[in-house]
Amino acid sequence: MVWSLSNNTRHDVSPVLDANRERLPSVAAELDQLISISRRLRRDRELAFYGSEDLTPSQFYRSADAQDAYTDAVLVHRVVAAACNRAELA
Question: Staple partner for 65: which of 19, 48, 60, 61, CB 3.0–4.6 Å?
């Protein structure tokens, strides 16, 4: 089975994940967490890249924020890789 997104420049895939819940049974247990991570990383990406009127990214974000983002990314990779491995075996 091949999955693709028509718009692969999307930074927040949470709407796609939510709209395709029934097509993603292999990640159902983690889906809400994946959606939350996607939303949070998109929001933080925008702030980190562009800041805001009252926020300078280099003064706002700390090492712990980077560690949290890394931990989330590792979780997403683990869940997606496991789902892909199960799909290849099916």
Answer: 61
pTM listed for this prediction: 0.77
Residue 52's region, left for phi above 0, alpha for psi from -120 to 50, else beta, is beta
Identify the bridge partners of residue 52 per DSSP, sorted by sequence position: 55
Our separate counts of H helices and E strands in the chain read: 4, 0
Q: For residue 3, report the phi and psi dihedrals to the nearest 5 degrees.
A: -110, 140
Q: What count of other Cβ atoms lies within 10 Å of the Cβ of residue 14?
A: 19
Q: What is the tens place of the pLDDT at every residue in 37-89?
A: 999 988 888 888 888 888 888 888 899 999 999 999 999 999 999 999 888 77
Query: Please, are residues 28 and 67 in contact by the beta-carbon 8 Å criterion?
Result: no
Distance CA 39, CA 32 (A): 11
